[in-house]
Amino acid sequence: MIKKTLIEKIILGVVGVATATVLAVLPISSYSDYKDYLAEVETKNEEISNKNKKPVLNSISATLKEGVAYYANDVAFAKAEDVNVVASYTSPEGENYTEVIELGKYQVSTAADFYQKGGDITVTYRNKTAKINVSLLPVVLESIEVAVNPYSVKYAVGSTFSTDGMVVNAVYNDGTVKPLTSEDYTVDKTAALTASDNSVAISYTEGEITKTANIEIGVSQTLNNGAVTSIMIVNDQAIVNAGDVLGNAQMEVNAVYENGNRKPLTSSEYTVANANTAVAFGKQYKMEIAYGEDATKTDVAEVTVRNTIQGEDGVIVGGAVKEETEYKVINGVITEQTNKVKFAGNFSKTVTNGGEGSLTLTFNSETNAVGDITMRCGNSYNCYANGTNANDGYMMKPLQINTILDLTVNGREVQIPTTVILKGCGPAETYAPLYGIYYEFTFENVQFDVGVNNVKFNFKRSTIGDANCWGESPSTMNIDYVHFDTVGREIPENYTISAIEVATSVLNMEYGQPLSEVEVPIVGTLNNGTQVVIDSSLCNISISGGTGKDYVEFGEYTITADLKSDNALRTSGSYKVKEYQEIAVLTADVVIENGRVYYVFTGSSIGYTADQFELFDGNTVLPLEVTLGVKTFEMKTDITDMAKGTVFYPHLRLIIDAENGLKLNYENGANANGDIRDKGLTFTDGKSVTLNGKTYKLTSQYSMPRLNVD
């Protein structure tokens, strides 16, 4: 018995505490049973141990996805979705296996000059890396295309081929297209044409590559164009600026003759249906034109309505409006232009310090339409040309927009594809000209809301850790202008409204505004599903809330509306006018009223009561009469009995909490002393009045209306 106990103690010591815990709850009838039990426990412990072991990551490998290529086109930008990443593991059981790593779990990075020289794409997953060496493919000419034939494709013998009206594009292997001018390409038929000529070869050469496109022509003894058989809007493209009329569309109209020749028409040679119709963003329009000499010859094209807003005209937070000389890259040379660009920019410092850097542009849409947003911007991704040394010059790396910018429409996030990239440029000896090179890029198929659209471009620190040559996140762009383009949605001539709603999200009720002047936006849903802003005169509208005054107060309001033609279609919504306080002293004067002299100040005031005003200079506080209007104030003090020799510098204090002695000095100048001066204040320097042998005079000093009693 003693021997068995000793053996048990030895075994227990080997197995350990965890095993002992399990043993304590099981009966042991014999030594043989006990050994079996120990074997079972050890097996289970080994299983648990193996289960808790994690696979070992041995390495990762990375390859470019099929079809991915990078070109020397100044937009080569390695993105995580461009690569396949495979991790190699060893399981706890010693088995080797591989696993494809999901997008978002690994990072990619490149050298600063990757977009110009190629090199390694470094892929990082956990503590492992893999490299993909990339050679940028040279951008080479693949073909040329005649996008629009010349005006003349039929000629008389002895005449010469004309390129007028012809649109020729160079097409490259990276998918880009470049318009060519007549100076860029050559034609093989420059001499007098003969009856045997049936085509003309258009050739364009870049470097050692020449590409050719053929145009079929016809040559006869005499040329007879024949009658005009049709007219056409070239490329079916008609652009009208929002608010402009259809008659001012940007387009080219041609007449087409029987033999296929064309001629451009002036605006006086064709008519535009509803030419005086002003277009509104979000509505759908057709450009219907008719030939002036024969109204049966017509053409129709869809109209793109364009709303262009300059960057400097938006609401800028954490940035600034600036102006700079524009540069362009002409034949590879950075060339200064004569014009200057005014832009919104300079957001980076604010964003780097954790503040908001944003630009908000606002416009109205008549429907809930889909359109494109095109921005013209200067790049800010500045780096050294060789990655480390400023003496070797500077360049701008391509900027992947979604890594430094969030886009919202009325607070709704718009997903920016990774393919939206602002082109790079350089190198240059100094970085200054690079900021002045502007390119366009486009966000396609953006949903715009019916009514007001607040489109916000909100800058952020680079989400992929990019930094310029000074170690700063490239969280800015110089925004010249933004195009908002849409073909809109159809609003039928005759339609049925199936529902209405008060668009409280875009309703604007300002404190002090007469209730009768509040414009309530009503959105109607048509039977075809289109939402449109409808004329509010079609509805009975009532506004309730406040204390019964005839102007807007602070607080909650309820807006109800019903359709006059169908009272069953009703809607209501609530709108809160948030409380705020503001004050500005606008005028100062001295006047005589009823045999007394008064020092008088007027201005605008919202959210303050008459007993909060206090006029002082040092320890002198003057008694006040304060009269408040809805958004105005007049404060005046009787200074008749002031002694000669008195000098008074006016300061304003607002009593915020009289019970606790809390007072706030009026700030309207260069300091916070309560000075009444500057920022819109007007008064007549030297204005004086005389009463009972004393002269009360205002003199400008420190931009303040100093009062002198003499």
Any overview of this molecule?
The chain has 710 residues and is mainly beta. It folds into 7 domains: 2-49; 56-110 and 120-125, no CATH class; 141-220, Immunoglobulin-like (Sandwich); 231-307, Immunoglobulin-like (Sandwich); 314-486, Galactose-binding domain-like (Jelly Rolls, Sandwich), CATH 2.60.120.260; 497-577, Immunoglobulin-like, CATH 2.60.40; 582-709. The strands form 16 sheets. Strands 16, 19, 20, 21, 26, 34 and 36 form a 7-stranded mixed β-sheet that branches. Strands 22-25-35-30-31 form a 5-stranded antiparallel β-sheet, with no helix packed on it. It has a 4-stranded antiparallel β-sheet with strand order 43-44-48-47, with no helix packed on it. Strand 50 (651-657) and strand 51 form a beta hairpin.
Keywords:
710 residues; mainly beta; Immunoglobulin-like; 7 domains; seven-stranded mixed β-sheet; five-stranded antiparallel β-sheet; extended; disordered N terminus
Sheet-strand content, in percent, reads over 45%
The gross shape turns out to be extended
Low-pLDDT ranges:
1-26
The biggest beta sheet, please?
A: 7 strands, mixed
Number of strands: 54
SS field, number of helical segments: 6
CATH topology of the largest domain: Jelly Rolls
From the N-terminal CA to the C-terminal CA, the straight-line distance is: 123 Å
Number of domains: 7
Using the 3D structure, state the CATH architecture of the largest domain: Sandwich
Helical/strand content category: mainly beta
For the record, the CATH class of the largest domain is Mainly Beta
Cα-atom Rg, whole angstroms?
39 Å
Helical fraction equals: under 10%
- Residue-averaged pLDDT, rounded? 90
According to CATH, the homologous superfamily of the largest domain is Galactose-binding domain-like
